[in-house]
Design a protein that fits this description.
heterodimer, A: about 725 residues, alpha+beta, 4-stranded antiparallel beta sheet, 22 helices, 9 strands, globular, B: about 100 residues, mainly alpha
Chain lengths: ~725, ~100
């Protein structure tokens, strides 16, 4: 089936090239059939890529090691759940996933717009097919997922232990969905610039895809943070890693775009800004894809560097930037604003400021992410950048974002009077002040963390502002309809999904950033080396190492520890943390050594998560005390194996089986020494407040995004021949 | 052989999908003019929906206390006048 998979890729490439030609010919000649044919080539590619992806999935599920990537990223012992996810743990498989998702979402976009924006669609189709051509070419020429070997190994290398995590099943497809969906507004924006159709329609068409991309990318980023927190064994959720930043940057730009298009829709303003923003967002999505694939910046998430692949991406990004800049420059007259800002005290002004802050934040992250590369180019030495470099820039900007997320919902469009300001700001400002007083009174030492304190106050302001908006909306609805409060709330949200979905997102962002401020400013962390029975104290908690645990199987060796957490003599929780070692396929590491010195390891954290704080721990049981046994065992077993291989052919297999059975028994006994003769293990202990708020905030943001994304009821389009337009307007608005 | 057959089936399916528009009865010639009018209608529909949303937002802003009665009246009148001119343009475009 590998041959079929390869042939499907080639067919996909041919269909994409044909589609580009057909779409452009149709656009130039005005012949609809060619445009339709071009669009249909995208459907065909979606079918081909789906089939190709399924072929690869089946190969992984069947552990068909004749496929090189199956042998390198899976094994017969990999759980089925992770075999399916192992496809996108490889460069080749993830590229195929990219083009598969791209063709799928592009087909959906082109299907939904088949009778709309007819002048723009052919160009958008050609651009989307151009992306397909690029990515399919990469899979054919440089990263073929269907390459096979005539001499397949009996066993595969297995999936990287760090990727054996539930969120890893969802995180990459969500991020890729976000990236691929962002190419759709990019393509339509470029199409609008080419044709000069720059009015409300292209925005109406692309807004929904921009929102869906924003939602998926956001969920993907959050799942990545969760994976980092629970899997990587360092206790954090965000390390300002280049690949993490690569996903965050287009998300920030998409957030700015989703706000600023409202100004264009309402006021005909910011046309250049909006089109530039969405073009930059689409380009950043490709930059993000490039960063994951290129390995140009060191990241635990990146694939191995491939110079040919890197050059291809640089060419694509350059083409995107050049075409965007030249088209925006060419259309600058048509993109002139239709009106001007009435007042600096208006929602438009707040949105503009928020846009500037988001773009500034993106620019800072971009600069600091690429700084190691820039410093290397200039000085010849790569200067590494860590989280402390980001904080002085990012924290103040994040504070402004939370403050604006509170101001935005309660300030009116166009202009605001002092009386209205007083009426709308009294409750949120009071909530912020009460929070400030309560924190300063009740939480000792909070005053020393000024940024965190401000974040709590601004967060309270934003949450109060959103709550006030919901309350007043429900009250107004009830005054009109006399519905019960829950019914009025549902009706209000249903009839104004964008508005109240947006407000929910704002509340979620406030909750999320309160969690970030709390957990990063008030975290207690220490390393403690303990033997069973010993205790360590952290933030008032006594953590006692109760007993070690150990398990061994041919697939994994696991050392663990049971810890008892008490506070003031009262039991709080019991934690179990483990450290897993996976055997290497490298025989040079020794018959036994490959189980203990493989380099493939994973940590399972012990976590007690709560609304106020998390108690987090991970064990690092050094295998040094076993090294003497391991080295000796390796030597003995090497000679035993050599002897078994010299045995007569008829007896050889039986002898080898005996040696391996004895090896497994010895490994089991070595592992059990950790329980019977325990040595000291090192624990990383963390007590971190409000981490749960981060995840809750993320869930609220996703929920709000879904509300905003949900389709609005289609307005009845009635033809009224009379001149009673006012009546018609009232009727259609009702 | 099976692989070859499967690839041929896939290729035939692709050809069928992309050639479907050509197999329909083609109404050529009038395409360009018809499309121009359709585009204008679609654009006006988009403008109309944006304006409706703006009117609704202003109403909600008024009801939730973000706009005073006076401000709302003048804003609502202006928005409705703009909406009416869009409706008129829409009807003209449809009739043409």
């Amino acid at each position: 089936m590998a041959t079929v998979g390869r042939a499907l890729l080639i067919l996909g490439l041919v269909a994409a090239l044909y589609g580009i030609a057909a779409s452009l010919y149709g656009a130039r000649t005005g012949r609809r059939v060619w445009v339709d044919s071009g669009r249909r080539s995208m459907y065909a590619i979606a079918g081909l890529m789906t089939t190709a992806f399924l072929i690869l999935e089946v190969a992984f599920l069947r552990s068909d090691f004749s496929y090189n990537i199956v042998a390198s990223a899976s094994s017969t012992t990999t759980p089925t759940f992770y075999k399916a996810a192992a496809v996108w743990s490889t460069q080749q498989g993830s590229l195929l996933l990219w083009v598969f998702l791209l063709s799928l979402w592009s087909s959906l976009a082109l299907f939904l717009t088949r009778r709309r924006v007819r002048e723009i669609v052919p160009y958008a189709t050609a651009i989307l097919l151009g992306f397909c051509t690029f990515f399919i070419s990469l899979t054919i020429l440089f990263a073929n997922p269907f390459s096979t070997t005539s001499n397949p190994p009996r066993e595969g290398a297995g999936l990287d232990p760090l990727l054996r995590h539930t969120t890893m099943m969802i995180h990459p497809p969500m991020v890729y969905t976000g990236y691929t969906m962002l190419t759709i507004p990019f393509a339509f924006a470029l199409g609008a610039l080419i044709t000069g159709r720059l009015n409300a329609e292209w925005i109406q068409v692309t807004r929904r895809f921009a929102l869906a991309a924003w939602l998926c990318l956001g969920i993907g980023v959050l799942l990545g943070a969760r994976w980092s927190y629970t899997e990587l064994g360092w206790g954090g959720y965000w390390a300002w890693d280049p690949v993490e930043n690569a996903a965050l940057m287009p998300w920030l730009l998409a957030t700015a775009f989703l706000h600023s298009i409202m100004i264009q829709e309402k006021r005909g303003m910011l046309k250049v800004w909006n089109v530039s923003l969405i073009l930059a967002t689409g380009t950043m999505a490709i930059v993000g894809t490039f960063l994951v694939r290129s390995g140009i910046l060191s990241s635990i998430h990146a694939f191995v560097s491939d110079p040919t692949l890197n050059i291809s991406f640089v060419v694509l990004i350059a083409a995107m930037v050049i075409s965007s800049v030249s088209l925006v420059t060419r259309r600058r007259v048509e993109l002139r604003s239709e009106s001007q800002l009435d007042s600096l005290l208006s929602r438009e002004a707040v949105f503009m400021l928020q846009n500037l802050v988001l773009v500034a934040l993106t620019a800072v992250i971009f600069w600091l992410t690429f700084f190691p590369l820039i410093s290397e180019a200039i000085t010849g030495t790569e200067q590494s950048i860590g989280p402390p470099t980001f904080r002085p820039f990012v924290v103040p900007l994040a504070l402004i974002i939370v403050l604006l997320s509170g101001i935005g919902p309660i300030i009116a469009w166009r202009r605001v009077t002092v009386a209205n300001l007083r009426r709308n700001f009294t409750f949120p400002v009071s909530a912020a002040l009460v929070t400030l007083i309560l924190l300063l009174t009740l939480v000792s030492g909070v005053g020393a963390h000024i940024f965190a304190l401000l974040m709590f106050c601004f967060g309270a302001f934003a949450l109060a502002a959103v709550a006030q908006e919901f309350f007043r909306g429900v009250r107004a609805r009830r005054a009109m309809t006399h519905e019960a409060a829950p019914v009025a709330l549902l009706s209000l949200v249903r009839r104004n999904r964008r508005r109240y979905g947006g407000y929910t997102v704002h509340a979620g962002i406030a909750v999320l950033l309160i969690g970030v401020a709390g957990s990063s400013s008030f975290q207690h962390q220490r390393y403690a080396t303990m033997k069973p029975g010993q205790s360590a104290r952290i933030d008032g908690y006594d953590i006692r190492y109760v007993k070690p645990t150990a398990t061994a199987s041919p697939q994994k060796i696991s050392f663990g520890a049971i810890l008892d957490v008490t506070k003031g003599g009262h039991h709080v929780t019991t934690l179990h943390t483990t450290y897993g070692l996976y055997p290497s396929e490298d025989p040079s590491l020794g018959v036994i050594g490959r189980f203990f010195n493989s380099g493939s390891d994973e940590s399972r954290i012990g976590l007690d998560a709560g609304l106020t704080h998390d108690i987090w721990t991970v064990v690092d049981p050094s295998t040094t005390p076993l090294q003497g046994f391991i080295t000796k065992g390796d030597r003995l077993f090497a000679s035993a194996l050599a002897a078994a291989e010299r045995a007569p052919v008829a007896q050889r297999q039986a002898q080898l089986n005996l040696v391996f059975a004895y090896r497994d028994q010895l490994i089991n006994e070595l592992t059990q020494r950790f329980v019977t003769h325990p040595w000291a293990a090192t624990f990383l202990l963390i007590v971190s407040p409000l981490v749960t708020w981060l995840w809750l905030g993320g869930i609220i943001v996703a929920f709000g995004g879904l509300i905003a994304l949900w389709p609005i009821p289609v307005l009845a389009r009635r033809r009224v021949r009379s001149a009673a337009y006012a009546a018609r307007l009232a009727r259609e608005l009702a | 052989m099976l692989a070859f057959l499967l690839v041929m089936v896939a290729a035939a399916a692709v050809v069928l999908i992309v050639s479907a528009p050509f197999r329909r009865v083609e109404v050529d010639g009038g395409d360009a003019k018809g499309e121009e009018s359709t585009s204008e209608v679609a654009e006006l529909e988009a403008a109309k929906e944006a304006k409706y949303r703006e009117i609704r937002d202003a109403e909600l802003d008024h009801r939730t206390g973000k706009l005073s009665d006076e401000d709302f009246q003048s804003l609502d009148n202006a928005l409705r006048a703009e909406a009416i001119s869009i409706l008129q343009a829409l009807d003209r475009a449809r009739e043409s």
